[in-house]
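Recall from the previous chapter that SMILES is a line notation for molecules. Here it describes adenosine-5'-triphosphate.
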Amino acid sequence: MIEMKNNIVSFANNTVTQKRPVQLSVEHVNIFYGENHAVKDVTIPIHEKSITALIGPSGCGKSTFLRTINRMNDLIPSARCEGTISYKAVNILNPKVDVVQLRKEIGMVFQQPNPFPKSISENIQLPLRFAGVRSKKVLKQVTEDCLKQVGLWDEVKDRLDRSATSLSGGQQQRLCIARALALKPDVILLDEPTSALDPVSSAKIEELLLELKTSYTIVIVTHNMQQAARIADYTAFFYQGELVEFGTTKTLFTTPEKKSTADYISGRFG
Ligand SMILES: Nc1ncnc2c1ncn2[C@@H]1O[C@H](COP(=O)(O)OP(=O)(O)OP(=O)(O)O)[C@@H](O)[C@H]1O
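With both inputs in hand, we obtain:
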């Protein structure tokens, strides 16, 4: 058992009892920013209805890799990607893929809560309207369902017309997750979703992710080793753009194969 820096590791929530089918198959993915080879030949399976954590020191390529899974890196002019990410029998890196549709199916939540400067209900309804939903009844119902899914409904049901920016940081982040859920994605990508939050709000998000994984595939970038140990079924350790090790979280944290994995998770570097 690897000794952790601050805490005892608990795997209570994430013991992989039954291997889920692979939802996204990442094969030989290389990502470049101009001459900078930021992600090097990464091959991993991402299992459905499981949480996969991406860990590693700053600058090792975690966010770059995450953003590639729903083609957000397309927005960066110098970014270029090679390899295959198979999803529903299609290589989503193929330039012909409809990225608007892809991002409906593979949603994203960022480090800083980024609600639209609109009302709470509009935050859920705008993406739906953009996707062509017109029925007021449907819009209202989806708003209620999504806010209930993230445990926010009772806190905001009497002030749905108030600005989303009037919510606390933790509530805003749950609203952003609800907004991602509105489009009924299969996969939710989260880039350090709790790093800007206080411990109580972070704990709520962790609980929420454990609930959501029964219905959604989740990939999360985290700097928090305890968080990965608590919630992730699978963990991938990146270092200097390379995937050093991938496995069940329990195996990676208790019996890592590589010395650099052991050093990182025990806080000896990073
Ligand atoms: N928009 C960008 N344009 C150019 N280079 C970038 C861009 N984003 C990241 N990089 C480079 O890609 C490499 C990987 O960065 P990335 O942000 O993916 O790492 P990370 O592991 O997520 O780091 P952190 O934990 O600090 O967020 C770094 O060398 C970084 O400078």
